[in-house]
Write a structure and sequence with these properties.
Blueprint lengths: L48 E10 L17 E8 L5 E2 L7 H5 L9 H17 L7 E5 L5 H8 L3 E6 L2 H9 L4 E3 L19 E5 L8 H11 L6 E7 L1 H7 L11 E2 L2 H10 L2 E5 L12 E8 L23 H21 L4 E4 L3 H8 L7 E5 L17 E2 L3 H4 L4 E4 L5 H9 L7 E4 H5 L1
Parallel strand pairs: 4-5, 4-7, 5-6, 7-8, 12-13, 12-15, 13-14, 15-16
Antiparallel strand pairs: 1-2, 2-3, 3-9, 8-11, 10-11
Helix pairs in contact: 2-3
């Protein structure tokens, strides 16, 4: 769903990021500084912070523009640091993304897999924790209201918080009430009285977009019912990012990057007890999904059994940059080889994964176009790479030999849809298979 929100509280010395600014080389520090002596950890307040990811001149994931757009895209370095005190990976500084989110329109509503996931999540939360008809659900970063509509069908009363005016309009049209706002810890006090307290507070691919994780968790604890309150979080799994070299998930919009263990520690420090990291089986979750449920410490909910945290991989922070660079080189080499053999290449997935994958490549200009089911992206150009986004039927009208799937989490349904087309590509490959 990738619903996004950001805290826009600025201090006088913080650098303001705007979608049309192409002159900024970094946010909050020099791009060539591997340390971060001027900043403390945004979670534990300690440090020092040590850089372990550096990606130069990267765009915003959703700043797609029409071909005749006259401005330059925002480009800045992405630097990710690890706190040596608590181990949490993060960026530094804060950025004003409010202009960016006002007309933000990302949705995965066209995906049958995503629709099944959302309904399964709603039904599972209700059934697993014994929630009764009329239970109260708040979603931060509620997007077009699709997930909350699933909770409505599961018997809940729902309320969303979403910064995009367009997505709020869609949400209200489908009968899901929503507050148009960027979520900040103080936003919790503005919730309708009927939702104070709430039974469930939900953030799917939103928590890592908030610059004040500890403040957000404190606000969540105050918002939830002390006896039965549940916090449901879905974030990108940093262990999997490292294992798969999935560099496209390092974004300007992400402030923090979490493993199951660092998330457990942050929750405990804010008065939450981790109940499960297996709320849904992996086959039913979206790509790179760390999906957890936690309860307020005094709540009646308890883990069904002792939660055992097993990381997908042990992250070697010292060597990851080299592995990241090698993965990008493999993608470039793959595209170069295909085109050198006279094969035409296209992509599938015009969302964040596709945008950021192509932005780091030197050979992206050789990709003819990128297909996407989201009609709102058609006719636009991906930022930096300027690869056009097209409907899926372009594969029939302008056939290619090889299709690289950036949205690998939907690989099965993408393959089924593409193979039904006339002139379907002879080769359909996940970007993950190339990055290895």
């Amino acid at each position: 769903m990738n619903n996004k929100a950001a805290d826009v509280d600025q201090s006088g010395n913080q650098q303001k990021l705007t979608p049309t600014d192409s002159t900024v080389s970094g946010v909050g520090m020099a791009a060539n500084d591997p340390g971060c002596s001027g900043h403390k950890c945004r979670v534990c307040g300690e440090g020092p912070l040590v850089r372990w990811v550096h990606m130069p001149a990267m765009p915003l994931t959703e700043e797609l523009r029409p071909p005749d757009y006259g401005g330059s895209p925002y480009l800045a370095d992405i630097d990710v640091y690890r706190c040596t005190a608590c181990g949490i990976s993060q960026t530094v500084g804060e950025r004003d993304l409010s202009p960016y989110y006002v007309d933000y329109g990302y949705t995965v509503g066209q995906s049958p897999f995503a629709a099944r996931f959302m309904q399964r999540l709603a039904d599972t939360v209700r059934d697993r924790f014994g929630l009764q008809q009329g239970f109260k659900v708040i979603e931060i970063g509620s997007g077009d209201g699709a997930q909350l509509a699933c909770f409505q069908r599961a018997g809940a009363e729902v309320f969303g918080i979403e910064p995009s005016a367009e997505l709020c309009r869609v949400s209200r049209a489908r009968g899901v009430p929503v507050m148009e706002a960027l979520f900040m810890p103080q936003t919790a006090a503005l919730l309708p009285e009927a939702f104070q307290p709430a039974d469930v507070l939900l953030m799917t691919y939103t928590f890592d977009h908030l610059p004040d994780p500890s403040g957000t968790l404190e606000a969540a604890r105050r918002t939830l019912h002390p006896g039965r309150g549940l916090l449901v979080l879905e974030v990108h799994d940093l262990s999997r990012i490292a294992e798969r070299r999935e560099y496209c998930l390092f974004e300007h919009e992400h402030y923090t990057y979490w493993t199951a263990e660092t998330l457990r520690c942050a929750l405990a420090n804010s008065g939450f007890r981790l109940l499960t990291t297996e709320l849904l089986p992996e086959r039913e979750r979206r790509g790179n999904s760390l999906l957890i449920a936690a309860a307020v410490m005094d709540a009646a909910h308890s883990p069904e059994s002792e939660v055992v945290l097993t990381e997908a991989t042990t992250i070697d922070y010292d060597t990851f940059q080299q592995e990241l660079d090698q993965g990008i080189a493999r993608l470039d080499a793959f595209v170069e080889e295909e085109t050198s053999l006279g094969r035409k290449v296209a992509g599938y997935g015009g969302g964040g994964r596709g945008v950021m994958t192509m932005a780091a490549m030197t050979s992206a200009w050789r990709i003819a176009y990128v297909c996407d089911a989201n009609t709102g992206l058609h006719g636009l150009l991906a930022p930096k790479s300027r690869v056009p986004i097209a409907p899926i039927n372009r594969l029939s009208e302008e056939p290619v030999d090889t299709l690289i799937v950036f949205s690998y989490g939907y690989m099965t349904e993408i393959r089924e849809a593409v193979e039904k087309l006339s002139n379907a590509p002879q080769r359909i490959v996940s970007m993950l298979d190339i990055l290895k």
